[in-house]
UniProtKB/TrEMBL annotation:
Name of protein: SnoaL-like domain-containing protein
Domain SnoaL-like: from-to ranges: 16-141
Coiled-coil stretches noted in the UniProt entry, renumbered to this chain: none
Pfam (any one): SnoaL_2
Length: 183
């Protein structure tokens, strides 16, 4: 006889746990939300600053330009450790959540209320992140925002970020991998 099967978190629960874990700088909890083959794409788009732009991205009518392609759980964790070091606090305000009709994609909209640890400079960027979740684990995140605001901070990329920047250039040149869709 077997005991009850453990329940799998919903996509929304998984995405909320990821955001909570990042804000708490809890790398173990972040790791628990990710599949081994998880990807995190950073998509440049100014559309996230308007309700219509957000709706267009969610509906697939608008895209961004991939500027970083973080590949695999260990690299996502390396990137995440880097932002833990770069920002204090590391929080988003005005959380807004949207779940796709099939429940497998979750969109998180939030405004960063962060401070660069090295300089004390404020960092306020609006992000829309799509979480693709399978069996309670994040498979892919596509984070849309104004990457120029981040670039102007002058924070040095860590090793995982640098590799992801190079991989994004490869997406731009690839005949098979999209640099525009976030997929």
């Amino acid at each position: 006889m077997t005991g009850p099967r453990p329940t799998t978190r919903s996509a929304l629960e998984t995405a909320k746990e990821f955001i909570r874990a990042v804000e708490a700088k809890d790398i173990g909890a972040v790791e628990d939300t990710l599949r081994d083959d998880a990807e995190q794409l950073f998509m440049h788009s100014n559309a996230v600053t308007t309700d219509q732009g957000v709706a267009d991205i969610i509906a697939g009518r608008r895209r961004g330009l991939c500027v970083a392609d973080v590949s695999g759980r260990e690299e996502v964790l390396g990137y995440t450790r880097g932002i833990f070091d770069k920002f204090a606090p590391l929080v988003w305000r005005n959380h807004r959540w949207t779940v796709s009709p099939d429940g497998r994609e979750v969109f998180f909209l939030g405004t960063g209320d962060m401070v660069v640890a090295r300089t004390g400079a404020p960092y306020r960027n609006t992000y829309l992140t799509r979480f693709d979740v399978t069996d309670g684990k994040i498979v892919r995140m596509a984070e849309y925002g104004n990457v120029m605001l981040y670039a102007r901070l002058g924070v040095r990329p860590n090793r995982a970020e640098f590799r992801s920047l190079l991989r994004a250039v490869g997406r731009m040149l690839s005949p098979t991998r999209s640099s525009r869709s976030g997929r």
